[in-house]
Structure formats: C-alpha cells, structure tokens
C-alpha cells in the first residue's frame, strides 16, 4: 500500500495571554490509500488543530506552525500557496465539519451551495451539473432531492443538514474525506444512518477517510485503524481489532473502559478516566497522561516515551514506559487472590 497522506513532525503552537499553548507536538503519521483512520482523544488533544493546520485553515496568528510537512499526492501541503490549497480543499480533499448550522450558508439554497462547489472544482455545467447535484443528494439519502434543491438549510432537519454537508464533502469525488465530529450533534439513530452511508461511500468509491471523533464506539464501527491522541501526541495507534483487544497505553485502556457496554448499562456508574486533560500551556515534563495514570512509573513523569511497535507487530504502536498487559494481569491476579 502507498501512503496517500504522510504527516511528518507537525508542531503547532498558539500564542495566548496565558502563554504558549503547545497544541500539536511532533505529530507524524500516514494514511494509506483506501484506509479509514479513526482519530480519538478527549477535548483539547490536538485533533482539530492538526487537521486545520494541514488544510491551511488555522488563523496565523495566533497559531504558529513551528515545523512539519504534510505530503498529499506528491505535494507538501504546508508549502502550497493559499490558492493551491483552496483548489485542493473541497476538490481532492473533501471536508465535513461539526455543527451543520454554521457550516452551511443560511441565506443560500442547498442546491446553490452544492452548485458552487461543483463549479469551482469540476467542469460540469448546465444540465449535467444539475443532474450531479440531484445525484449527490440522492446518494446521501435525501428523499425527493429535486424538490429539496430550492430549499434553505433551516428547512432541513439536523440529520438532513449533516447529509448535505457530506454531499458537499463528497461532491468532487475526493481522494481523501476528512470528517471532524461530523455526527457528534446528532441523535443515535441518525448517527447510525450516517455511518452506514459513509461505509457505503467507501465501498462504492474507495475513498480514503479520516474520521475524528470522541467516540470509541464510532471508531469500532467505521475505522480500519485507530489513532489515540493526547496532549497533541499519538499515544497509541494500530488496527482497530488489535488496539481494542489489547491496548498498550493506559489512556487507550481508560477510553475503552469508559465505553458503555451491555454489561455496564446495568451497572450504576460508567467508568470515567480520573482527572482532566492537561493544561497545554504548561505541559507535564514526561508522558502527558502520567498525572492521571495510576500505572505511571517514575520515568513516565520525567521523560516522554517514544512511539514504538508492540513486540512482533508491524502496525500496532504505542508510547508508554510501562508494560500494560503485564500490569493488568497482575492487578487481576491480586484481585483474584483477595476474593
Ligand atoms: N485559536 C486558539 N487559540 C488558542 N488556543 C487554541 C486555539 N484553538 C485551539 N487551541 C488549543 O489547542 C489545543 C488543541 O485543540 P483542538 O481543537 O485541536 O482539540 P480537539 O482534540 O479537537 O478537541 P475537541 O474534541 O474538543 O474538538 C487545545 O488546548 C486548545 O485550547
Ligand atoms: Mg476538535
């Protein structure tokens, strides 16, 4: 497989009155052609900032891109002109962001908004253009698309507006679709419908997808690879099955433990990771998760662990100084001995 996107050593900071916020810290990863990458992590882990940075959508200042390359299709996005990036955004890279109300223009009809994207990035005009717009609305499951073209965003439900945004994101058959919290605001049923839709789009068009979410459950359903971020770094990444089955970072383990399951629903309370995310203007010296991690060793508090491969695995990587499976086994044995 070849990497469609190759991010190398991306570091982004913000100058704020409270100091320098280190939002993204030496981030490197690849997305292969046809792969669906699910990126998870609590609020403030650098998910959105790194995506916006590589798309050239961060306001600089206050943001500052300290270092980094982002190779897409043979070009380093970080060195492209604004004009070249505008060509790529909405064209070869489709985007679907959170909050449908603010992403659609309220004073333009839905048909007009789709038309503008297609006119900017394709040669379609006239009847062919109209047919493509109707087709797109149909693909994303909007009933009576022809009649819906002349309606405004407020005439659509939240779920339907999100479908329109996906239609816009997919309009030009992008090679890469990046969604950031695209289903967070929607109820569970609509979310499930949209995930089905994205799976179908992947199957039908082979689109490569980066799906950013808080929700490990969504990752389990949609992604091939999961990437867990914390403090602007990757804590763990690998094939979904491998990471879910045997997490190596205590942070991943905590996220998985806080997932509602059939069993947990009957329990009184869901597990919650103790403490709160770090202050990015004053990051701890070592492993950013160490202050919240009861497995942390002395070294975790002083030295940042590098991302390394799980023994014997080609694609499961983690950043931790401790051996989580061994620690969990010991805890289980101790609990057994006590009972
Ligand atoms: N305009 C800004 N000025 C200052 N700091 C910012 C700005 N935008 C983001 N940050 C900081 O950058 C860090 C990373 O934010 P980011 O939006 O990437 O988090 P996220 O992982 O997307 O979180 P969420 O899940 O809440 O969307 C946070 O500490 C945030 O406060
Ligand atoms: Mg975000």
What do you see in this structure?
The protein is α/β, with parallel strands linked by helices. The protein has one domain (3-338): P-loop containing nucleotide triphosphate hydrolases (Rossmann fold), CATH 3.40.50. Helix content is 36%, strand content 23%. The chain is built from 13 helices and twelve strands. The chain has helices spanning 47-54, 82-88, 100-103, 110-121, 126-139, 145-148, 158-170, 188-205, 216-222, 240-245, 250-257, 262-266, 324-338; strands at residues 3-16, 19-32, 36-40, 63-72, 75-76, 93-97, 176-180, 208-213, 225-230, 233-239, 308-309, 317-318. Strands 6-7-8-3-9-10-12-11 form an eight-stranded mixed beta sheet, with helices on both faces. Helix 4 crosses helix 5 (126-139). The protein starts with a strand and ends with a helix. The model has no long low-confidence stretch (mean pLDDT 91). Bound molecules: adenosine-5'-triphosphate and magnesium ion (MG). Residues 14, 16, 21, 23, 41, 43-49, 62, 214, 280 line the site of adenosine-5'-triphosphate. Magnesium ion binds next to helix 1. It is a peripheral membrane protein. InterPro entries: AAA+_ATPase, ABC_Ni/Peptide_Import, ABC_transporter-like_ATP-bd, ABC_transporter-like_CS, Oligopep_ABC_C, P-loop_NTPase. One of its GO terms (molecular function) is ATP binding.
């Amino acid at each position: 497989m070849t990497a469609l996107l190759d991010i190398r050593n991306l570091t982004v900071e913000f100058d704020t009155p409270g100091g320098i916020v280190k939002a993204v810290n030496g981030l490197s990863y690849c997305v292969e052609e046809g792969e669906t990458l699910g990126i998870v992590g609590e609020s403030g882990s650098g998910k959105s900032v790194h995506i916006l940075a590589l798309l050239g959508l961060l306001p600089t200042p206050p943001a500052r891109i300290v270092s980094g390359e982002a190779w897409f299709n043979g070009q380093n996005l970080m060195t492209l002109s604004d004009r070249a990036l505008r060509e790529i955004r909405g064209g070869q890279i489709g985007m679907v962001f959170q909050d449908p109300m603010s992403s659609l223009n309220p004073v333009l009809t839905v048909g007009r908004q789709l038309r503008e994207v297609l006119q900017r990035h394709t040669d379609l005009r006239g009847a062919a253009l109209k047919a493509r717009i109707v087709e797109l609305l149909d693909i994303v499951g909007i009933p009576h698309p022809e009649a819906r073209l002349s309606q405004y965003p407020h005439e659509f439900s939240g779920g339907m507006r999100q479908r329109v945004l996906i239609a816009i994101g997919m309009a030009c058959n992008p090679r890469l679709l990046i969604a950031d919290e695209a289903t967070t605001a929607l109820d569970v049923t609509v979310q499930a419908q949209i995930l089905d839709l994205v799976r179908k789009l992947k199957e039908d068009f082979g689109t490569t997808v980066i799906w950013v979410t808080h929700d490990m459950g969504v990752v389990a359903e949609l992604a091939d690879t999961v990437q867990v971020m914390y403090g602007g770094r990757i804590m763990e990444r690998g094939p979904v099955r491998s990471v879910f089955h045997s997490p190596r970072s205590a942070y991943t383990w905590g996220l998985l433990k806080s997932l509602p399951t059939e069993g947990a629903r009957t329990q009184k309370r869901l597990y919650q990771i103790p403490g709160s995310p770090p202050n990015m203007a004053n990051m701890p010296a070592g492993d950013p998760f160490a202050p919240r991690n009861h497995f942390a060793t002395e070294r975790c508090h002083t030295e940042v662990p590098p991302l390394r491969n799980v023994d014997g695995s080609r694609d499961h990587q983690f950043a931790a100084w401790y051996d989580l499976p061994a620690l969990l086994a010991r805890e289980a044995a101790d609990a057994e001995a006590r009972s």
